[in-house]
Amino acid sequence: MPGGFLGLFTPVADRVALNVYGFYYGEVAVPVAQVDVPVRVTTFLTVTPSYLYYEVPPSGLAKASAFPAHFADTFEENQFRVDGTVKFSIHAFEISDRNMYVRRFRPTDDMNRYRQRIALARPVAVYGRMWKPFASYEAFYERTNGGWNRTRLMAGTTLPLLKRVSFQPSYVRDNYRIRGLRDVNYLQFGFIVSTK
Questions:
Q1: Burial status of residue 140 (CB atoms within 10 A of its CB: 0-12, 13-18, 19 or more)
Q2: Of the residues 22, 33, 92, 169, which has the fewest C-beta atoms closer than 10 A?
Q3: How many CB atoms lie within 10 A of CB 58?
Q4: pLDDT by residue for the chain (196 residues), tens digit each?
Q5: 84 Cβ neighbours under 8 A, 6+ residues apart
Q6: Is the distance from CB of 94 to CB of 121 less than 8 angstroms?
């Protein structure tokens, strides 16, 4: 049976990867570290458990605040996440729909978050390397924090540096509906190391 029944008979080593990310959110000076393990369940569906850590320095908290304020402490957060992503191609365009559950561990409280993202990407050959420009729209839901309280627009590209290392510059606009936070535009720079 070519390709196996819905990809279930593909060897496990071909269906599981390990990705390590390092991102930096420019405007608010936030370093982010992430590890995920994508598991391709079928041809179109991937399930990915992941862990993310970030910290916002006092200067970043002041920029994100809608009210003049002085912050003395760095804000840290740990997240355990799992998502299901449906991905398919139409001609050269890659379309994906990711639905993610996040458990947030913060100094002030712990909470759950749901994130839904639609993304479009198109690989392009540039000087013999495959660049992947992309754009996405994402909505965030937290029942205990106002419901649908944030949206994110992102556009950028993934550039291969080495066989398993990529660089990903992008522009991000976060729109908040939470009292006390203002909308933030920033450049994000990331390095991605992957086993696949």
A1: buried
A2: 92
A3: 15
A4: 444 444 455 566 789 999 999 999 887 889 999 999 999 999 999 999 999 999 988 887 777 776 656 666 788 999 999 999 999 999 999 999 999 999 999 888 899 999 999 999 999 998 888 999 999 999 999 998 889 999 999 999 999 999 899 999 999 999 988 877 888 899 999 999 999 8
A5: 45, 46, 47, 48, 98, 99
A6: yes
Sheet strands (E) in 122-182:
124-126, 129-142, 147-162, 165-176
What does the angle CA 55 – CA 106 – CA 99 come to, to the nearest 5 degrees?
A: 90
Give the closest residue to 133 by CA, choosing from 147, 144, 122. Answer: 122
Residue type, 30: V
Sign of CA dihedral 68, 74, 80, 82: positive
Pair 20, 35: CB distance under 8 Å? yes
CA dihedral 109→142→134→48, nearest 10 degrees, is: 70
Scanning the structure block, which residue is given the tokens 């991937």? Answer: 46
Give me the domains of the chain, ranges plus CATH numbers.
5-194 (2.40.128.140)
